[in-house]
TrEMBL record:
Keyword Protease: yes
Pfam families reported in the protein's UniProt record: Peptidase_M3, Peptidase_M3_N
Full protein name: Oligoendopeptidase F
Domain Peptidase M3A/M3B catalytic, first and last residues per copy: 198-308
Membership in a protein family: Belongs to the peptidase M3 family.
Amino acid sequence: MDANLTPERWSLEDLFGGPQSPGFKRALEELDEKAAALEEARDELNPDLPPERFLEIVRQVEELSDLMHRVYATAGLWFYEDTQNPEAQALLARVRQKAAEIENRALFFELWFKDLPDEAAARLIAAAGERYRYWLEQMRSWKPYTLSEGEEKIVNLKNATGRSALDTLYDTITSRYKFTLEVDGESVTLTRGELMVYVRDPRPEVRAAAYRELYRVYAEDAPVLAQIYQNIVSDWKNEYLEVRGFKSAIAVRNKINDVPDAVVETLLAVSRENAPLFQRYFRLKARVLGMERLRRYDVYAPVTRAEKRYPYAEARAMVDQAFRAFDPRFAELAERVFARR
């Protein structure tokens, strides 16, 4: 384990050799080849499809999806390495469009499986085994909110240049922000991540200054950011509530998270009933901090001071130990982040 932290540029070479490599270009070609191979199975799909053949098709869908996610991850990581890089921006847009096209070519399988009679679907789910059970069951659970094939294709293409593009635009704008804060008599320039460290500073004037600087910088682009937000919200409402038939915006998120509406409603109701407990906590915190009333700036204020610092090697060892207690494989993958950047 390295004893010191040496900041350096991360490497994407494990992903096809990098976003500008021949391997990445080959992966894009392979997507079309795998999609074409899957499309050949369309005429075979029927309620009496043999389980063995169904499992073969499911694996084709999985391989296509896995490759598409790896391609998307490569473009996304390159973009987030430097959101101002025009080449990375262009590649991400191209890959997003490719993903929509590939999803549309594979869409027929999902629509067919959702529309199967319950008995036929149960037979095929059982044959597919535990590896695919949850995925297949979740797929069918979306049937009440599914449109026709033509309509679904339009939505996929719309999202490529709509909601997803707006998310990327927001990230492109806000990731270039720089913040200036006076700390210990010295003016420092910070990223948002670095700035937010100071909202937990024990000094109330530093916490307030950090929040005010955050608001000041974002306010400069307020009209643009507001338009992005309004259009994302409108797009969500139009697609999911007006077109797909969800009863509320939060019901969409609950469905995506596979959490019943009743569970979330119970959670919210119990939280409202116990709001006085939260209010009491903040009154107590204000008393401990010697304040009459907490300001927004004081929500994350520490109530005790901790001066302990951990050497980098020790901190890494602690993280590694925690990961290994959770799952050894997870720890191994985390170690690769350090070893291979």
